[in-house]
């Protein structure tokens, strides 16, 4: 046995190598080795210390990596199987070059190449400064008003960022607009950092980020705001009513001697606006009834008045006899009660113009046989008129055979006529045969 093993050891080794080779070939056929290029995300796993900030960086969002691996490995990688971790926690203040080294979380695999290989990062010490908040008032108040000194809460803000940026900040501004204001303006506004040239300073933090600003308004002593009161004259047409009155502007400003201004009431009347006989909306630009020694400002010489005219809503009760439809000539009907009351609602002018033919009541007796039936009447009314109720809600319809003049039912009358006619024709035919 020993001699046999010694003589055949080379053949045994060759057999093992051939078996291994065959297994490898089979595996490659089932799971071939391929190469692929992937975009690996760059992930900052450890940021700089809390008192430091990244002021400049060329870190790309992804790194393109070339990988050689079995097909099954690529299928197992998934979305986060390849990453480029970056640790910034050990870097100090200054400019640094960081290696971008991809990591592959699934084996077996081989990294062939990656681009880019490095990135530059500049880290600076965080600086902060307390800066007074400056209120910037924009816009012009309404005529006759002037803005007073504004107030802001809080009065200071903390600016944080790199030393270079923080040193540029000359003011933290709260901008408020008072255009056309007639009373105090109060707003919560966002704070912005500006340099000495009034340009915005980006990439700095402001704490708090907003401030409450209030700008008081004061009316000058020779100006006064007056509410406009519209004076309609006349009455709309019968059945119509005024449903609303609007005016633009609602408040006008007048000026004059201080004594005359102080004696004015809080309103001013328009000249009369006629709505006599109106059946539709009235829109008219009218002047103001201005007191002596007082003048409106140029934009307030006239106002636009809109008076809405709408039909008055009313109710009306009418009585109508139901009309039976769908009955044949061989049948007769009797409706009880002979008339129903109908409560209608709608515009009063429409109700006033209703005629007897405008409102009808129908009862559909189609297909009914002899007997007593309870049916619901149908009311036909003009458009815009609503039927509120019908009294009674149902009517009794008695269907019977139609009668002739002698009181016999029409079917019996027609049957006798037919029999008589047939008898006469039969007699005449017999006489002809005898002859």
Mean pLDDT: 84
Oligomer: single chain
Q: Shape from CA axes?
A: flat
Strand residue percentage? over 45%
Backbone structural class: alpha+beta
Radius of gyration: 50 Å
Number-wise, the strands total 32
The major pleated sheet works out as: 9 strands, mixed
CATH superfamily of the largest domain: YbbR-like domain
The N- and C-terminal alpha carbons lie at a distance of 149 Å
Q: What name does CATH use for the topology of the largest domain?
A: RNA Polymerase Alpha Subunit, Chain A, domain 2
Number of helices: 6
Helix proportion range: 10-25%
Question: How many domains make up the coordinates?
Answer: 5
CATH architecture of the largest domain: Beta Complex
Assigned CATH class of the largest domain? Mainly Beta
- The parts where pLDDT drops under 50 for at least 5 residues are 410-427, 429-435
Task: Write up this protein.
By secondary structure, the chain is of the alpha+beta class. It has 5 domains: 1-29; 31-45 and 61-116, Beta Complex (RNA Polymerase Alpha Subunit, Chain A, domain 2); 125-219, Beta Complex (RNA Polymerase Alpha Subunit, Chain A, domain 2); 226-311, YbbR-like domain (RNA Polymerase Alpha Subunit, Chain A, domain 2), CATH 2.170.120; 314-401, RNA Polymerase Alpha Subunit, Chain A, domain 2, CATH 2.170.120. Helix content is 18%, strand content 49%. Strand 12 and strand 13 (185-194) form a beta hairpin.
């Amino acid at each position: 046995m020993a001699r046999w093993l010694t003589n055949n050891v080379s053949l045994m080794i060759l057999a093992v190598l051939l078996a291994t080779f065959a297994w490898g070939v089979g595996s490659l056929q089932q799971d071939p080795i391929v190469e692929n290029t992937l975009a690996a995300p760059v992930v900052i796993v450890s940021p700089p210390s809390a008192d430091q900030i990244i002021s400049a960086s060329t870190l790309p969002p992804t790194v393109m990596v070339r990988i050689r691996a079995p097909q099954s490995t690529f299928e197992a990688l998934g979305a986060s199987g390849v990453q480029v971790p970056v640790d910034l926690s050990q870097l100090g203040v200054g400019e640094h070059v960081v290696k971008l080294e991809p990591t592959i979380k699934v084996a077996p695999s081989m990294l062939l190449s990656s681009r880019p290989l490095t990135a530059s990062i500049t880290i600076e010490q965080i600086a902060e400064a307390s800066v007074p908040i400056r209120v910037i008032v924009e816009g012009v108040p309404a005529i006759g008003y002037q803005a007073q000194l504004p107030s802001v809460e809080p009065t200071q803000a903390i600016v944080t960022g790199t030393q270079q940026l923080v040193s540029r900040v000359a003011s933290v501004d709260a901008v408020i607009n008072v255009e056309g204001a007639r009373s105090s303006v109060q707003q919560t506004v966002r704070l912005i950092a500006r340099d000495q040239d009034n340009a915005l300073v980006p990439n700095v933090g402001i704490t708090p980020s907003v401030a409450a600003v209030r700008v008081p308004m004061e009316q000058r002593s020779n100006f006064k705001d007056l509410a406009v009161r519209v004076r309609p004259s006349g009455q709309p047409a019968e059945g119509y009513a005024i449903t609303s009155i609007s005016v633009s502007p609602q408040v006008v400003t007048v000026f004059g001697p201080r004594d005359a201004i102080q004696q004015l009431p809080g309103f001013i009347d328009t000249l009369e606006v006629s709505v006599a006989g109106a059946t539709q909306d009235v829109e008219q630009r009218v002047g103001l009834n201005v007191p002596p020694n007082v003048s409106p400002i140029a934009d307030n010489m006239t106002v636009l008045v809109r008076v809405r005219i709408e039909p008055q809503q009313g109710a009306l009760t009418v009585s109508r006899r139901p009309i039976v439809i769908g009955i044949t000539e061989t049948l007769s009907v009797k409706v009880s009660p002979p008339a129903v009351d109908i409560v209608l609602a709608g515009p009063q002018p429409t109700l006033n113009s209703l005629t007897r033919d405008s409102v009808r009541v129908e009862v559909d007796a189609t297909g009914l046989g002899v007997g007593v039936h309870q049916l619901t009447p149908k009311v036909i009314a003009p458009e815009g008129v609503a039927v509120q109720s019908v009294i009674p809600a149902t009517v009794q319809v008695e269907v019977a055979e139609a009668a002739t003049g002698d009181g016999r039912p029409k079917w019996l009358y027609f049957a006798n006529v037919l029999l008589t006619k047939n008898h006469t024709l039969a007699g005449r035919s017999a006489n002809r045969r005898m002859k």
